[in-house]
Amino acid sequence: MSWEQQPGYWQEQGHQQPQYPQYQQQSYTQPAYPQPYEPVPPDPQPYEQPTYHQGYGQEYGCPAHAQQELEPQPLAPAPPAAAEAEEEKPPPRLPGRDRYFDTLRAVALIRVVSYHTFGWAWAGMVFPSMGIMFALAGTLMAKSLERPAPKVVRGRLRRLLPPFWFWGFFVVLAMLIQGWMPGWQIVYWIVPLGDPPGSAWAEQAWEILWYLRTYLWFVLLSPLLLKIFRLAPVAVLLLSLAPILVLHFLWEPPDDRLGSALTDLATFLFCWILGFAHRDGVPARLRPFAVAVLSLAAIGFAGWYALTHQAETGSYDLDDIPLAQALWSAGYVTLLMWAKSYFGIDFAWLTRFRRTDRIVTIFNSRAVTIYLWHEIALILAVPLIDQLWNVPAFETYLPLESQWFMFGVGWILIAVFVLLCGWVEDVAGKKKPTLLPGGRPASP
């Protein structure tokens, strides 16, 4: 006897006994499949998850209590302890960001400001900021190129050019007021494919634009460079040092915009390609001994060359010696990228220090603003400190003659520019303008 035929079953449940002729003749003793076993053909129609709605249980004869179980129940409010724990959580990070790379970028910006304040020739050897920044940008570019290349290039231009135009408006206006007469080369202030022209009076402000020009060319060339790199990753990575060797030993580029652009591209091409390699996991597949030997050899040769050729440039500053800059940056950044891949460094612990983590976030979200405006901040720090000499208390108790004091004043002015001008980066990135990342909205 089957369960449906047991007397009183449906009466006990408060329902009338349904009639299912196709099942009433089957009992538990009957086999579940025909004998011998025949495979059941697949259902040609894909399974669709049924949508439950009010009355669903009643339509199919289910009891009322079963229907109630199908209906979604509201979530209970979180207890007070959970709410307090939610408030203690660190601020959310940008999706897909790596705290190791973000920290390197923040330190690189601090080193750039320090170098332009103190002029330390050894700063580039301790931390080659520009090589690191190009390598990080290459990694992000390779990641972005998983999408259609034209869309990626347009996105990079959209995020770079508006902050540049906003900054350039004030610089060009100041130079015009000072009597500067531009020629047709002023078009480079619209798209900096070449060094934008400027007056000697504002050279300290616009001389940093070589980085934006080089970055822009790398962005435009990246779709082609990435395809070439993936044909033979290790070979292309090593050969990316060939252009700087050619320019240094075989052919001297002209001393003009074209020559400057070619030199800078050749100097940092290896770092940009190294960013591609890291994205594709190439450093992690290399032998540690080979990486260490080649990287240290490049650093050693670059240091020797810089120290033994000071008579040509008057200093061992890597910024004045492209060959030494290229090899030193190549070896240094290779070690950083390899260590990241081999040891799995991610700096996730940084989120436990909320203030430091927030500072790193601000540096990365306002990197273009900090880079563009830091020289103007240092320029304005000089007349501002001159005014402090007129206050006897400040003259007595403040180290107004110290470069460290100017360094501090410069960072205060950089912070002001970040608050006043950083929202342009949000607009360029199609984000809601804010005074600071994670802060309240700003009104541009």
What are the segments in which pLDDT stays under 50 over at least 5 consecutive residues? 20-76, 78-95, 440-444
DSSP strand count: 0
Counted by DSSP, the helix tally is 23
Radius of gyration: 33 Å
- How much of the sequence lies in strands comes to under 5%
Q: How much helix is in the residues? A: 55-70%
Reading the helices and strands in chain order gives HHHHHHHHHHHHHHHHHHHHHHH
Mean pLDDT: 83
The helix/strand class is mainly alpha
Shape: globular
Through-space gap between termini? 80 Å
Sketch the major β-sheet: none
Q: What's this entry about, in short?
A:
Helix content is 62%, strand content 0%. It has 444 residues and is an all-alpha fold.
Question: Can you offer a commentary on this structure?
Answer:
This protein is mainly α. The protein has 23 helices and no strands. The protein has helices spanning 9-12, 21-24, 56-59, 64-70, 80-88, 99-118, 123-126, 129-144, 149-177, 203-206, 210-231, 233-239, 242-249, 257-279, 282-285, 288-308, 310-313, 322-343, 354-365, 367-388, 392-397, 403-421, 423-428. Helix 8 crosses helix 11, helix 9 packs antiparallel against helix 11 (210-231) and helix 13 (242-249) runs antiparallel to helix 14. The longest helix is centred in the middle third of the chain and has 29 residues, at 149-177. The chain is globular and about 65 Å long. The termini are far apart.
SSE arrangement:
Elements lengths: L8 H4 L8 H4 L31 H4 L4 H7 L9 H9 L10 H20 L4 H4 L2 H16 L4 H29 L25 H4 L3 H22 L1 H7 L2 H8 L7 H23 L2 H4 L2 H21 L1 H4 L8 H22 L10 H12 L1 H22 L3 H6 L5 H19 L1 H6 L16
